[in-house]
Hints:
- Residues 1-211 form the DOCKER domain.
- It comes from Grallaria varia.
- GO terms for molecular function: guanyl-nucleotide exchange factor activity; small GTPase binding.
- Belongs to the DOCK family.
- This is DOCK3 protein.
- The structure is a single chain.
- With 211 residues, this protein is α+β, with helices and mostly antiparallel strands.
- It folds into two domains: 1-87, no CATH class; 89-211, Methane Monooxygenase Hydroxylase, Chain G, domain 1.
- Helices cover 53% and strands 18% of the residues.
- The protein contains eight helices and four strands; from the N terminus they run βααβββαααααα.
- The chain has a four-stranded antiparallel β-sheet with strand order 1-2-3-4.
- Strand 3 (57-70) and strand 4 (79-87) form a beta hairpin.
- Helix 3 packs parallel to helix 7.
- The longest helix is centred in the last third of the chain and has 28 residues, at 159-186.
Amino acid sequence: VQIYAVTPIPDNRDVLQMDRVPDRIKSFYRVNNVRKFRYDRPFHKGPKDKENQFKSLWIERTTLTLTHSLPGISRWFEVERRELVEVSPLENAIQVVENKNQELRTLISQYQHKQMHGNINLLSMCLNGVIDAAANGGIARYQEAFFEKDYITKHPGDAEKITQLKELMQEQVHVLGVGLAVHEKFVHPEMRPLHKKLIDQFQMMRSSLYH
């Protein structure tokens, strides 16, 4: 028996993309009236690149469709359809950055609207996680994997997706800048050294991006 943690796929995505809809309502739609769920299995297709694993890191994505939506009158429902697709390394990179941007925007919005202004720790951890990973080569690895001339020459059909990834990375810089401004407004005096570290690492991250 294999047990997988699955991610709900909301049917009503329009609501989730509306800026004027409160986060609490979006949270409801993310996990209610859901029939589709998915789980991912990472794998390396072909020889694994020891220098940069992102170049060969594919995702095997399984999507499960139930006979009825959850939650419902029963605690479980039968799976009526199972779909399996392979997500390329570039497509995976796009989804990872896009999801992180959405997570950051949602969290920052909660602090901006004073829903969570009492405790800055969650924002500190989220900003630190993204900026620290980027400062230690996270985003640079994507650049090395997909923006180099060799990759672009070998994958002419990926031009649009490469542009999309670049735009998402630039968007992440903008979102992080907004997050740091909010963080500065609410950070406690004893946490100022962490804030300064985040600012310094953010500057390094921004200067390392391709323009």
